[in-house]
Design brief:
The chain is mainly α. The chain contains 19 helices and no strands. The protein folds into three domains: 45 residues, Homeodomain-like (Arc Repressor Mutant, subunit A), CATH 1.10.10; 151 residues, no CATH class; 146 residues, Tetracycline Repressor, domain 2 (Orthogonal Bundle), CATH 1.10.357. The longest helix has 23 residues. The radius of gyration is 22 Å and the shape is flat. The two termini are 32 Å apart. The C terminus is likely disordered.
Length: 382
C-alpha cells in the first residue's frame, strides 16, 4: 500500500510539473491531485525538491533501461536502434521529458547523470569513449530533434538522423578556420537615447535573467528603469505580455548578431561553424538571454516554440543543396548542437572548449561518426 501511495504522489507530481513551472506547484496541490493528505506526502518525501529529484532519477533510470538491449544487438543494428530508442522515449514519455527539461535547467547534476548513461551507450554503439565533440554531435542534435518532434510536432525523420550520425550533414567541403574564427566582431547597435519602452525591456531582460520570471515583479522593473509604474501599462498589458516581448527581443538580437557578423565568402560548412562561434560569443556577452529562454520553456512554451521556429525559418530561406538528407531534420539537428553546446559553455563554464569543439564539429558535419568499431568487452554490457 505504501508503494502505491508513493507512486500516486509521483504520478501526480509528474502531471503537475510537466504542465506548470516548478516554482508554482505546491505540495498541497500534488496531494490534492493524488487524492491524498499532506501527511501521506511527508511520510514518503521530505519536501517538494525531494519528489522532483526522485522523478529526475527515474527518468535517467528509464532511459538507461531502454538503452540496455543495444549491447546484445548485431553491430549493424545498434546505431538505428540507438536513434529509435532515444526518439521514441521522447514521444512515449513526453511528460517525463518535460519534467527532465526543467530539472536539467534547475539541477544540472542530473544532466551529468544522463550524460554518463549516453556516453556508455555511445561506447556500445561505436566501440569507443566519445570526445566532448563526438558526444555533442551524437546526442545534442538527436535529443533536441526528438524533443521538438514530441513537444512541437516537428516532422523529424529517424532514418535521416541515422544518416547524419553515420555520414554527416554536408557534402565534402574545404574548411578555413581563419575565416570562421575571425575576431573582428560588430556589436549590436546601441540606442543612445532609448525610449521608455526600450528602457523597460532592457531592465526586464536583466531581472528575468538574474532572478527568474516569478521572482521578478513589475515594480522592480519600472524602478530600475527610473520610470513610474504607469509607464509600464502604457506599453504592456501584463507581466506575461512583457515577458513575451522580452523573449522575442532575445531571439531577434541573437539572429541579428549572427547575421551581422556572418560575413561573406564562406561555404556552407564554414557558415554553420561561424554561426556556432557567434552564438557562443553572444552568450558570453549576454548570459541573461540563455536563462530567459530556458525558463520560458516552462512558463510560456508556445512563445519558445515560436523562438525556435524563427531560427528554423531562417535556415529555410537559404537554398541548401549541400545537405545529405531531409532538410527539416538537418535543421533541427543543427539547432540542437547549438543548444547543447550552449549548455556546456554556460553551465560547465567552459568557453575555452568552444573553438576546438567547433573545429572538430565541422569535420563531423562532413564525415559523421563513420563506421562503427568492434566494441571492447568492457563496453558490451550497459
Amino acid at each position: 500500500m505504501n508503494s502505491d501511495t508513493r507512486q500516486a504522489l509521483i504520478d501526480s507530481a509528474v502531471t503537475l510539473f510537466s504542465t506548470k513551472w516548478y516554482g508554482t506547484v505546491s505540495v498541497a496541490e500534488i496531494c490534492r491531485s493524488a487524492g491524498l493528505s499532506n501527511g501521506a506526502f511527508y511520510r514518503h518525501f521530505k519536501n517538494k525538491e525531494e519528489i522532483f529529484c526522485a522523478i529526475l532519477d527515474h527518468v535517467v533510470q528509464q532511459i538507461e533501461k531502454a538503452l540496455k538491449p543495444l549491447s546484445s544487438m548485431e553491430l549493424s543494428q545498434r546505431l538505428p536502434n540507438f536513434v529509435s530508442i532515444i526518439y521514441n522515449f521522447s514521444q512515449d514519455y513526453t511528460p517525463l521529458v518535460r519534467v527532465f527539461r526543467e530539472g536539467q535547467y534547475r539541477l544540472f547534476e542530473y544532466e551529468r547523470k544522463l550524460k554518463d548513461v549516453y556516453e556508455h551507450a555511445f561506447q556500445v554503439v561505436f566501440g569507443r569513449t566519445p570526445s566532448i565533440t563526438e558526444y555533442l554531435f551524437a546526442l545534442a542534435g538527436l535529443r533536441f530533434a526528438s524533443i521538438r518532434a514530441a513537444l512541437h510536432q516537428i516532422p523529424v525523420q529517424t532514418d535521416a538522423l541515422v544518416t547524419i550520425l553515420s555520414k554527416g550533414l554536408f557534402k565534402t567541403q574545404p574548411i578555413n578556420a581563419d575565416r570562421i574564427f575571425a575576431t573582428s566582431i560588430t556589436p549590436l547597435p546601441i540606442e543612445l537615447w532609448p525610449d521608455s519602452r526600450d528602457l523597460l525591456l532592457a531592465e526586464g531582460r536583466k531581472l528575468f535573467g538574474e532572478k527568474g520570471y516569478f521572482e521578478t515583479n513589475i515594480h522592480d522593473v519600472t524602478s530600475n528603469a527610473g520610470l513610474a509604474i504607469g509607464s509600464f501599462y502604457r506599453y504592456f498589458e501584463s507581466k506575461e505580455s512583457f515577458y513575451k516581448e522580452v523573449i522575442r527581443s532575445v531571439g531577434r538580437d541573437v539572429r541579428h548578431f549572427i547575421s551581422l557578423n556572418l560575413g561573406n565568402g564562406l561555404n556552407r560548412v564554414e557558415r554553420e561553424m561561424r554561426g556556432l562561434w557567434l552564438f557562443i560569443l553572444f552568450l558570453s556577452m549576454d548570459r541573461y538571454c540563455y536563462n530567459i529562454v530556458r525558463e520560458a520553456e516552462f512558463v510560456l512554451p508556445n512563445e519558445v516554440r515560436d523562438y525556435y521556429d524563427a531560427f528554423h525559418r531562417g535556415y529555410l530561406k537559404r537554398e541548401d543543396a549541400s545537405l545529405t538528407c531531409d532538410s527539416t531534420t538537418c535543421i533541427e539537428f543543427m539547432l540542437g548542437v547549438a543548444h547543447y553546446l550552449g549548455i556546456e559553455v554556460i553551465f560547465d563554464k567552459s568557453p575555452e572548449i568552444a573553438r576546438q569543439t567547433i573545429e572538430e564539429m565541422g569535420q563531423l558535419y562532413i564525415h559523421g561518426l563513420g563506421e562503427m568499431q568492434r566494441p571492447d568487452e568492457s563496453a558490451s554490457v550497459l
